[in-house]
Amino acid sequence: MSAVFVTATGTEIGKTFVTAGLIRQLRAAGRAVGALKPVVTGFDIVTAAASDPAVLLAALGKPIARAEIDRIAPFRFAAPFAPDLAARREHRTLDFDALVDFSRRAMRVHDGTLLIEGVGGIMVPLDASHTVLDWMIALHLPLVLVTGSYLGSISHTLTCLEVLRHAGLRVKALVINETPGSTVPMQDTAETLTRFTQTIPILALPRLPAGKADHPVFGELAALL
Predict the structure, then answer these.
(1) I need a surface site. Which of 27, 42, 70, 161 has the fewest CB within 10 A?
(2) For the chain, which domains are there?
(3) Which positions are annotated as active-site residues?
(4) What φ, ψ does residue 157 adopt, rounded to 5°?
(5) Please, are residues 112 and 92 in contact by the beta-carbon 8 Å criterion?
């Protein structure tokens, strides 16, 4: 079994899109793959078919059913905020130890490649004293870091990479998911980041046409993992 944690420089960057694309690539290659999206905010069971867990289940070829959502995304909150704030809105807390235990148990029992998708960016608060970074440190898995090509993404990406390096975490690949309407050419973003991150493979994923979800980048990413 191998496991990889998919994280990002911020929210709405494209973690789920990248994770789903990687799932489809691994399945097409005949490799066993599973995925978790343990923490979800902004979740409404009425619109569950459009949720991030549903996107991953569809990529896995699993039914978008309540039992399957419970299996891969047990920590769900209704408010579309950071998990600590979303939980407080419901007079709840996200149990960090339970989250880590859930992740570790899945890692122990899963055969093949297990993808664990985080929530928001690397420093998003999970509870009063833990962030996504603490979750990643506890699991100590290799990472896929997803960033965008928007103005400012270079600084955000380099900051994240420095934090992850200081935490002793290994970034296996950096995926630049093209930001719609960005004034910065994605290739310029990739070239600049390459100069500062010479040991980390950088994959540039262009914005794909509506309905298209496959690209050679996913094959390159799968090969790196």
Answers:
(1) 70
(2) 2-32+96-224 (3.40.50.300)
(3) 37
(4) -70, -45
(5) no
